Amino acid sequence: MHASPAGSRSATWSPDAAGFLLSVIMPIYNERATLEQIVARVVAAPYEKQIILVDDGSTDGTRALVEQYRGRSGFEVVLQPRNRGKGAAIRAALPLVRGDAVIIQDADLEYDPQDYPLLIEHIRRGYADVVYGSRYLSRRATLPWTRYRLGVHLLNGLVRLLYLARITDEATCYKAFRTEVLRPLRLRCERFEFCPEVTAKCLKRGYRIVEVPISFRYRTVAEGKKIGWRDGFEAAWTLLKYRFVD
Using CA of residue 186, residue 85, residue 241, residue 147, what is the dihedral sign? Predict the structure, then answer.
């Protein structure tokens, strides 16, 4: 089993995507400054979409913004009673998914929804069941060497050691799945361990993870980045744990 960059097949959206439904799961926690802008970008992105907004107990006024989308065509709204974490928010959204494929979308502006076809066309055309958008495959990537990038490289090394799979960006937000692949995984994640858990379970089940280059705008802790060292250790433990248990 292995993961590798996508081949030379075109990943450009085309009109024959009519009838294909993409479910976008957006976990949200205290993103008042960016929420409306990122939702507008998702709406403007290609494909017919079901957009599932999950407010994870926001305390900065974000929750009221999320509630404005309730009842709008193409939207589902989930309000978590308290802050539990990204993984719990994704799990809360999964029962509502109606799409042929699912992609995870953070509620900040680091990732560009116009990149959806780079991932989704490999699924829609039957080339792959699982596609990750790598921040490190693009020749234009100019990401700084921070503790976050170091942590991603360490996690990539663990994936290679434990699962014999080469991945350049295990921690990317942009993970896309054929719905029938993601739904049966019996996810248990609460926080940021969604990424290592879903990676481990897909690889153990023999799914090849295809990676494609995507654009990325790095944001700092001062701008709202929430992941920390605790999450890195938890991610490493999750990769190790699911190598031996299901």
Answer: positive
Residue for token pair 């409306």: 36
**Phi, psi (degrees; rounded to nearest 5) at 144:** -70, 155
CB-based contacts of 187, cutoff 8 Å, min separation 6: 87, 90, 91, 94, 194, 197, 198, 201
Q: Identify the residue whose tokens are 């290609």.
A: 46
Give the number of other CB atoms < 10 A from CB of residue 34. Answer: 19
Per-residue pLDDT at 220: 53
Check residue 219 and give its pLDDT: 56
C-alpha closest to that of 181 among 202, 163, 167: 202
User: What CATH number does the domain located at 3-244 have?
Assistant: 3.90.550.10
Token pair recorded at residue 222: 């001062």
Name the maximum alpha-carbon separation found in the chain.
Answer: 47
Q: What is the pLDDT of residue 229?
A: 65
- Extents of the domains making up the chain: 3-244
* Model pLDDT, residue 7: 45
Structure confidence at residue 221 (pLDDT): 52
Q: Which regions of the chain are under pLDDT 50?
A: 1, 7-10
Q: Shortest CA distance to 69 belongs to which of 88, 56, 51?
A: 51
